[in-house]
Amino acid sequence: MKKTKILFFLAGLHGGGAQRVAMTILRKLDKKRFDITLVLVIKSGDYVDMIPKNINVIDLNLKKTIFSHFKIRKIIQELQPNIVFSTLFRTHNIIYLSLLGIKKKPLVVLRSQNSPKLVLENNQLGILAKFLLEKAYNNADMIVAQTPEMKSEIIKYHNIDGNKIEVFLNPIDTELIEKKINEIENPFDNNRINIVAAGRLTWQKGFDILVQSFKYIIDKDNNYFLHIIGNDDGEKENIQQMIYDLSLENNIKLWGFQKNPYKFFYYADLFVLSSRWEGLPNAVLENLYLKKPVVVTKCIPFMEQLVKENKNGKLVDVEDPIQLAHAILDYKSIELNFSNTFNDRDINDLFLSIGTRVTYDSVSL
């Protein structure tokens, strides 16, 4: 059987959610059905070790994604992939620009990384970037939305035909998780109440709100300890200063990026998500898979489908440190009643399905 050729285009492999999802998809795709090439603007970052050994990797070795336009165009023309896949706004735009004027085009699959509504409300896209993104979406063959609400937002805020948008929840690499939790030791002091939060240290993730809430928590119960794992993305210094200013050095630790976050999730008493906005947070899905209670902000509407009040977690308003503190202090009231909230669809079927939706002479599926 002739394999379907897929080209994945990523900026790099630093510790972000979009990169983790891309690595999970790469690991889950059936190598007997797909011939996969991974093109990286620069081969660096925390997830380099997660690249499957049986795929072709091309390192453009560039400092910025914007400089990759001509190189990725040349690679597409030479490899002639059936499908090109991108999972970041900036790589979406480069793919659009690189395909201009090419007669024999691959099918293009673009995954939306965040809530369009909240991205625009928080001024995360400039005028030119938004213009190019809408061009990229309109010229794509399939757009992958992480939730039904995200699909509606893409239609509304980017004026995209809903028929080309496919809802596909982030896949969880359960095989990897099970492997990782079988090779770990407890990193915590069991005499403390250990709370874990994870994500890039950026304003979007709301760690400043979480640190503020912890001041209130410690005034009530000094036994709580907050572990924050994740790379600095511009906010570490501010968060660290806030910790010092609030005299929380003995109750909060910034661990940085962790290759095995699952040891923190597995042994935690509670996982907390304090984000201002998200796409669909992988860490929440992973903690629910591990049957860990969660306290999360209502950063996207889909949270209310994932988290059932006092069953598997608690929901709080965005940017409300006192409400967040009360929910954390009351975490023992969560019943630990976990149901299947995960994506049972096969990622292979998603990529194969595009051939039945759009037909190109250059594609053989």
Could you characterize what this model shows?
This protein is of the alpha/beta class. It has 2 domains: 182 residues, Glycogen Phosphorylase B (Rossmann fold), CATH 3.40.50; 159 residues, Glycogen Phosphorylase B (Rossmann fold, 3-Layer(aba) Sandwich), CATH 3.40.50. Helix content is 37%, strand content 17%. The protein contains 14 helices and 13 strands. Strands 3-2-1-4-5-6-7 form a 7-stranded parallel beta sheet, sandwiched between helices. Helix 8 links the parallel strand 8 and strand 9. Helix 2 crosses helix 3. The N and C termini lie close together (10 Å). 42% of the residues are buried.
- Strand runs, count: 13
Main beta-sheet strand count, sense and barrel state:
7 strands, parallel
Q: How big a fraction of the residues is strand?
A: 15-25%
Globally, the shape reads globular
Number of domains: 2
**What structural class do you assign from the helix and strand content?**
alpha/beta
CATH architecture of the largest domain: 3-Layer(aba) Sandwich
Q: Which residue ranges are poorly predicted, with pLDDT under 50 across at least 5 consecutive positions?
A: 358-365
First and last CA, distance: 10 Å
Helix content: 25-40%
CATH 4th-level superfamily of the largest domain:
Glycogen Phosphorylase B
Tell me the CATH topology of the largest domain. Rossmann fold
**What is the level 1 CATH name of the largest domain?**
Alpha Beta
